[in-house]
Amino acid sequence: MASSSARSLARDYRDPHTRLGIDLTAFSGAGASSFLVHECGFLHYENWNHRGILSPYWRLHHNFAPGNAVRSDGTEYALDPASVVLVPGGVTLDTLGRKTVPHLWIHFVPGQEFMLALRRPIAVEIDPSIRETLASLRGIFEENDPLDSGRRMHHLGKALLHLAFAKLEAKQFRAYPDRLVRLLEHIETHLAEPLTTPELARLAGMSRHRLTEWFQRQTDLTPSRYVADLRLRTAMQRLASTDASIEQIAEDLGYPNRYYFSRVFKQQLGCGPATFRRGQR
Fold this sequence. Notes:
By secondary structure, the chain is of the alpha+beta class. Helices cover 42% and strands 21% of the residues.
């Protein structure tokens, strides 16, 4: 886990859409499983040097030539043709762009079955299947109009994530206690309800204080932050992939009204839900 000093210097990037890549959220659909793929991008970065990046979503990075790296908690992870680097959400990251090289990235959120116990980046050695998938993704971007190939890009992006995660050791995956799995499933299926910490504590059969400590130890988030992040991610997904009204989305996700939902959304992402929806389309 990143040190407290690193977190104090972090810049919180909550929107997974950089506008430099291709937005793929809509292709995941409202019932996405395994991986929710938000964005895939490919660029020859000239100055890829950023400090203290912190995001709730995950990242996959790959360079088709050596020279650059990412750094977390004092450790560098080389970006080169032999590996892809996975960065879990909530990990503070520096990007070190020492050279201008072909760079591919995916911003995504894994399903619960793909959560990792480790709180640091992981370099995954690529095999022929991963190399072929990376080459196919690069090929789409080098076509005249990758926007016309969004569905194919989404399919290849999810395939790449499955291939990369399949190479990880079983011990690297996080196994939640059954009680927590049931609580997370309840949260996911009851987002329209208040889901206050006292109510979650009652459902878990714990005191409020004990639930908060236990929940944060398992997920690295307080219950209230977990609920808020899940509501925001679900709102982004529904805005991008459905025609539901903003009022309906706010009601379905437990916001008191559209105005409160819009205020929270803008505070977190820098724009209101209507502007966000127009930008995705």
